[in-house]
Amino acid sequence: MKSIFALVMSALLLAGCNHSPKNKKEKTPPPVPPQQAVVIPSFNGDSAYHYVAEQVAFGPRVPGSEAHKKCAAYLASNLERFGASVQQQAFQMRAYNGKILDGINIIGTINPEANRRILLSAHWDSRPYADQDSDEAKHRQPIDGANDGASGVGVLLECARAMQQTLPEVGVDIILFDLEDYGPPKDQPQKESDGEFWGLGSQYWANNPHVFDYRAVYGILLDMVGAQDAVFPMERFSLYYAPHIVKKVWSKAQNMGYESYFPQQEGTYINDDHLYVNKYANIPMIDIIHQDMASVNGTFFDHWHTMEDNITTIDKSTLRVVGEVLMAVIYE
User: Three-class SS of residue 147?
Assistant: First the structure.
């Protein structure tokens, strides 16, 4: 009996050992959840145009003027209306002629809890001198600055309104710089140090940021972004300090079908607010700026620093293209 029992047990054990694992029910891995499409809020070119027109309606936003004061209040009020936390950074800087100027940088913070931040900026003051006008009698008259000033601000206000609908994952700081365009007039004797008298508001902020040890992953400056058929070659300081951001923005524009606005060609070096943010704040920042070497002034759009830089120069389609590219970059 002992032998039979042993044989039976051996057979059972052998059967157990020979049980094929393929007879076991295999576990099916859980399905991979579909990747959620990024929802980019709609940018409205008509709305951006409206914000440009409202700035211009105040008159030239020259420091010390009533128009300058009213426009500052308007910009701060709109950023607050669009959900941003707003600071007004009052400061003083010395102009090329020794005059002490009072300026206000207007800062709107969106999604303040986010650690990863993007800096967007434009200058909101307008040139006190139409020193590029064909009529020399107008060279000391202030300009409307519809394209050179108000256009970039209008795009950023519309971005703020759109972002209120769906907050981006990143934090966004919109800084509207003052005293960018108070450099020496054309008829002044030109000195090598004249460059330091442009971009006074960005120089002040870069050395005195609104938040201690402020950091942003990158920055984008808008300047002269509203003219019809505008072209934005890759500005040279941008390529030097932040080539990866230039590539990101221009590639995005090309993918969106806007290569005629954002051509794969290099422009020239422009002394603009982004230069001081790069140099003093060490934040990689690029400049989206209209450059036209075939224009009457040889660098910018035809009406640059003339009395003709008024609301008639502004094209809604150009504002929309720049705004859509900017929103796509922020939300990617």
Answer: helix
